[in-house]
Write a structure and sequence with these properties.
Elements: H1 2-9, H2 13-44, H3 51-63, H4 71-78, H5 82-94, H6 106-111, H7 117-128, H8 131-136, H9 144-153, H10 158-171, H11 184-190, H12 207-219, H13 250-265
Helix pairs in contact: 4-5, 9-10
């Protein structure tokens, strides 16, 4: 009798309810875990590929379209760590450039050619990114900050969002080996004329330099390097270094010293 009562107590409403609640809690925790893993997997689907890897692999496939790309091969070719190269391969597989066995896909065969590059990246963009992002930030003319904000709303931190946005801008460039579109100001700065500042040249040795040194010794201490007095009493020191080509003639050296005397020494203010 006692055993039967104990057995029946296992199925009492209170015990059943407690077990149901406990199982419900476990099930709830399981669902939360699955949801977190799904969110992380969803976030991971957005690639993060450095431009050096993007263009580097394209250059390799242009030379050897049927090569098998593994971690060691990519590490040696691009000069990166093998661990990093393996991660890059996973990213390249995620955008459809490489197959699981490291071969160039059909998209990659179009991607490596200038004539079909635009069509290839358009196919990649549509397969990797949602329509919402493509509409908010059209490839090739996207505002980088809008792209960053979009990824941040997807749950990425600012740094990760910036990296994802950089890859989006990279892939979205329709022309091969062309940087993502920039603002008009940045373009203007890029087209600005180079600085007119002369480049420093390495001093050369030779008979002309020896002759110059001898003449400088005969003249005594250079007056060019001495303080130049000014009417406001503010001292100004000029240190002038002149590099003369080894094939310069005596007349050229004389004219240099003459010009220095005429323009730098004789014209000093009283």
């Amino acid at each position: 009798m006692g055993g039967g009562a104990q057995e029946r107590s296992k199925f009492s409403p209170q015990v059943v309810e407690a077990k149901r609640l406990r199982l419900g809690h476990v099930y709830e925790m399981f669902l939360i875990r699955i949801e977190k893993e799904y969110v992380m997997a969803d976030k991971a689907r957005f690639p993060q590929i450095p431009s050096t890897v993007w263009w580097g692999l394209r250059s390799l496939l242009q030379r050897s379209p049927n090569v098998t790309v593994d971690g060691r091969f990519l590490a040696v070719q691009l000069g990166v760590q093998e661990v990093a190269a393996k991660q890059y391969i996973l990213e390249l597989q995620s955008v459809g450039i490489l197959s699981e066995d490291g071969k160039a896909t059909a998209v990659a065969q179009k991607w490596r050619l200038d004539q079909t590059y635009s069509a290839a990246v358009e196919e990649i963009l549509k397969s990797v990114y949602p329509e919402g992002l493509l509409a908010v930030a059209p490839p090739g003319e996207a505002d980088r900050q809008k792209v960053v904000n979009w990824f941040m709303h997807e749950g990425f931190g600012q740094g990760a969002a910036g990296n994802k946005a950089a890859t989006y801008m990279l892939i979205g460039s329709a022309s091969p080996n062309e940087a993502p579109s920039r603002s008009a100001t940045a373009k203007a700065e890029g087209k600005a004329a180079p600085s007119a500042r002369p480049k420093a040249t390495k001093p050369k040795s030779g008979p002309a330099v020896a002759s110059l040194e001898a003449k400088a010794a005969d003249r005594g201490p250079s007056k060019v390097a001495s303080p130049i007095s000014r009417t406001d009493g503010f001292p100004l020191n000029l240190n002038i270094q002149i590099h003369i080509s080894a094939d310069a003639g005596t007349e050229q050296i004389e004219s240099i010293f003459s010009a220095m005397k005429r323009y730098l020494y004789d014209n000093q203010a009283p």
